[in-house]
Write a structure and sequence with these properties.
Helix content: 55-70%
Number of strands: 2
Oligomer: single chain
Number of helices: 3
Strand order of the largest sheet: 1-2
Strand content: 5-15%
Largest sheet: 2 strands, antiparallel
Length: about 100
């Protein structure tokens, strides 16, 4: 169960590079558990669900950030509008945003 708590802490800290290592540890621990008692099984299930929910939320956040960066880059290329005929037209452009690494 400590591994599940460690995975949770790693997800919350955004240290996703550690997840591969921890999932290997979790597989090893889970293979050693033959049939846990029902209360332990319930706790394991709850912690796995919590971790799954946290990972899903982190993924949504990363996708939203990626979309926002994409929107900002598109906006820096100029404003796209429609003319009287309904055709798209690009109005002006702005200096490129600096890239951070």
């Amino acid at each position: 169960m400590a591994t599940l708590d460690e995975i949770h802490a790693v997800i919350l800290a955004g240290k996703f590079d550690r997840l591969a290592e921890l999932s290997q540890q979790l597989e090893t621990v889970m293979a050693q558990i033959e049939s846990p008692p029902a209360p332990v099984s319930d706790v394991l299930r709850q912690k796995m669900q919590r971790n799954r929910d946290c990972l899903a939320a982190a993924l949504r956040g990363m996708r939203a950030a990626h979309q926002r960066i994409s929107d900002i880059r598109k906006a820096s290329q100029g404003l796209t509008t429609y003319d009287q005929r309904g055709a798209t037209a690009l109005l002006g452009s702005f200096p490129a945003l600096p890239r951070r690494v």
